[in-house]
Each structure stands twice: as C-alpha cells, then as structure tokens.
Specification:
459 residues; alpha/beta; 20 strands
C-alpha cells in the first residue's frame, strides 16, 4: 500500500462516519493545538480537558481535518467515532498492520529508553517513533501515518502503571525487544514494589510475536527474573560477561565520546560513540546485539551507532567559560541515571564538580531513602557540591553532607546567594531532575550566565 491513508480509508479502519471530503489525506495526527501543523488531523481526546473545546483553534492553526465523537461547526472534513482514544489506537494499529515492515523492534526500560531507541534505529536504518511518543496516546498517533515500504521500525514503549506496555504491544506487536534495565521509577504506582515494576516492563516480553527474541543486560537481576517467568515465552538473550554477546575494551574518549569492542557470535567489531558515559556503552551494546540478532551486518551496525548524538535534556554537552562544562540531562531522573551521568561528567577536565538537581518522583514510601542514597552516591563519586530543590531536597543534602544546599523550589535555588549564582566559572555542572521540577530552567539560567553562547531558543 503506497501513500498515507485518506480520511475515507481511515474511516474504514476505525469504523467511524465521515462528514466532508474523504479524499483528504492527513500528513500527521495531533492532539495538541500548540504543535498542530497545516495538513494535520486534529484528534479531540477527552481527558482532564475536552479536546473538542480546542478543535476550532486547531482548524484556525491549519488542521485539515478533525476526528471527534460528535460533529462540530467547522469547515473541514470530520471523522466521527464513538470513542476518540479507541479510534486513535485502532488507526495506528491498523496502519501498522497494513504496511508492516519486516521487523518491528520495541524498546523499554527504567532508564535510557530514548537514547537506546536512537542507537537501535541508527544501527538498523529503521524508522523510529519521534521524540518520546511512547505511551498509549503518542505511539498510535505516530503509527497512524507510518510510511509504507519500510524494512524496520523501532518503537519506544513506556509505562507508569501496570498494563500500559501490554496495551502498547496489542497496538503494535513487536518481533524483537530490548529492556535497558529495570529500576525503581514509578515505584509508588506498584503495590508489589520492584517485582511489580519488573512484571510491567516484562509485558513487552509477553507481547512479542511467536518466535520473538529480546536482549537485556546479563547483570540486571530483575531482567533475569523476567526471563525465567512462565509468561515470558520469548527467547531471552543476555548481553555481558561470559555471554555470546557482550562488550570489552571500554574506553572513555572524554569530549569525543566512548569506544568499545562489541562481541557477537561471529566475532568482534569496534564501536565508537559520540555519546558520553559508560551507561551509553551498555545501551549501545544492547542495541548493537539486537541489531545483529536481527541479521544486520556488524560493521554497518557499528557505523550507524557512531552517528548518534545527544539531544536536548538527554546528555547534550555545553562549553562554559573558563574551561567549564554543563551536561544537560534535564529531561528526567532516577537514582541510577543521576549517578551514571555524574560519572560521565567527572571524566571531563575542569573545576569543581557540581550536581544541580530537581528531585525524583513516584518513588513511594522509600522516596526519602532513595534521595539520601543519591546524595551519598554523588559524594562517593567525588562531587564537590550539590544544589537540589523539591520535596525531598533535604534528604539528598543529608546523604551528600557538607557542600550540599537544599531548596523548596527552583526560584529559591536561583535567587539565593548560595545557589546558582554561587557557581564559579570553570565548574563542571550536571543538571538533572524529574519532568515535574522542570530542571531545564536551570540549564537556561546557567547558559545565560556562565556561557558565551545563548541558550537554545533564546535571542
């Protein structure tokens, strides 16, 4: 099937009713009037706010069509369905079924999903879900206009509660899977604690098509737990020491990234990454192993992964005045990722090592303990200072000890004389935090005050 679906074809797929010109073929779907583009189909979702209330605004911004659950007084074609969320998911599911490529890869994990998705897509030359469209809204939204004629796609699958990844694998059944790790993120949503998180991540494995395989770190005990569950029928392929797939000769190249040798059943291949930090080596070893398992040439896999660079909030490195550095990891945070990124920062030359943190979220009853462990871990790594804000800032400061300052919110950290303004030129600074605390504000402030380059989007 060539080309994108017309509204008439989409209507047949989702079982709706069409009002207006069915020949219109949207180039993308969007549920957000802030990002709508001319030629998109606006999908009116009923959530905390009713998307139907914003449909006119979407049309004024160029939406070529609207999908809703009742007809609206708008001068564009409308696809009318009983439930817009169910119809959105069916549209994405049906489009994937219609143009299904040879391989559908799925990636999940507590840390590193997006960067590993990027590495796997580069290794295989695959189409990938854009940005972080990894939930039951974003994934089908992206799949609805999936191009035809693809050899492979890489889908990121995230979750915050049980059953979400199961639903994603129903929408897009994968052939091959990858779990980066199983940590403590979203702990407060799981009464079974870590086992509940492992079971929820394992839904990806349970959802693999017959004959599917999945890779995981041999050192991850919870991934091993998933592998031996009776519902995890797919073949598990561990990656690490003593395994057919693994990595060795890991070397930090400082500002230039990392290098290592990827071991596979057919031999070895050297890999050079632009990404910085040992955690990216682990993720690249997983991505490269899965690509080779799928039949891709190891040399081409290595060459593809070498092209991947960090995006905003996900490891982008900025030069500061007087030889300082800012490692922007502001997109999200859990303890393991904070410490891994801290280790990467310390590989750079420069002055004092400082962590600027927003607190973590959804950790349940053990939140204070995890924050104390994070502070202690940063101290053990060799950090000189920690500035932290949020509801468990005091616990991080307690764990770190002398050199830590805790604040209730970003504004307090920004305005206090011992806060952001106290950081010296030449410092090596890690910025990281949960999405809730919007730690990208610290990145913008630091670039405005300690760099000769304007922060992204400023002029």
């Amino acid at each position: 099937m060539s080309g994108l679906w017309s509204l008439r074809e989409a209507c047949e797929a989702v079982g709706g009713r069409l009002e207006g010109d069915g020949a219109v073929a949207p180039d993308a779907l969007s549920m957000d009037t802030r990002t709508i583009r001319p030629g998109n189909c606006f999908v009116a979702i009923r959530g905390d706010r009713d998307g139907h209330d914003f449909a006119a605004q979407a049309v004024a911004s160029g939406a070529a069509a609207v999908m809703g659950d009742h007809e609206l007084p708008l001068d564009v074609p409308q696809l009318l369905v009983t439930d817009t969320l169910a119809a959105l998911q069916r549209w994405g599911q049906a489009r994937l079924e219609a143009v299904r490529p040879r391989h559908v890869f799925a990636v999940t994990g507590s840390v590193g999903k997006t960067s590993t998705k990027e590495l796997l897509a580069a290794a295989t030359g695959a189409w990938k879900t854009p940005g972080n469209r990894n939930n039951t809204l974003g994934l089908p939204e992206a799949l609805a206009t999936l191009p035809s004629g693809l050899d492979a796609v890489v889908l990121e699958m995230g979750m915050s509660t049980p059953g979400e990844i199961r639903r994603l694998t129903e929408i897009a059944p994968p052939d091959l899977g990858l779990i980066t790790n199983i940590g403590q993120v979203h702990m407060e949503n799981f009464v079974e604690g870590q086992e509940g998180i492992a079971r929820a991540k394992g839904e990806l494995v349970a959802g693999l098509r017959p004959g599917g395989k999945w890779v995981h770190l041999a050192s991850d005990s919870w991934c091993h737990w998933v592998a031996i569950q009776p519902w995890a029928r797919a073949e598990a392929v561990p990656v690490g020491d003593g395994c057919a797939f693994g990595w060795e000769e890991e070397t930090s190249l400082g500002l230039e990234g990392e290098s290592f040798v990827l071991r596979h059943p057919g031999g070895q291949v050297p890999v050079r990454l632009r990404l910085r930090g040992a955690h990216h080596v682990r993720n690249a070893a997983l991505a490269g192993s899965l690509a080779i398992l799928a039949g891709h040439d190891p040399e081409a896999v290595a060459a593809g992964m070498a092209t991947v660079d960090a995006g905003p909030g996900r490891g982008r490195l900025h030069a500061l005045r007087a030889g300082g550095w800012l490692l922007d990891e502001s997109y999200n945070a859990i303890k393991e990722s904070i410490l891994a990124c801290g280790e990467a920062l310390l590989s750079l030359r420069g002055g004092d090592a400082v962590a600027v943190l927003g607190c973590m979220r959804e950790l349940g009853a053990g939140a204070a303990a995890v924050h104390r462990e994070t502070g202690a871990g940063l101290r053990a790594l060799g950090f000189d200072r920690v500035l932290v804000y949020g509801d468990h800032a005091a616990a991080v400061a307690e764990g770190f000890g002398p050199g830590a300052r805790a604040y209730p919110d970003f504004e307090a950290m920004r305005d206090d004389g011992s806060g952001l303004s106290s950081l010296a030129e030449g410092s090596r600074i890690l910025v990281k935090g949960s999405r809730f605390w919007r730690s990208e504000r610290a990145v913008e402030w630091l670039l405005s005050n300690l760099s000769d380059n304007l922060p992204p989007g400023k002029s």
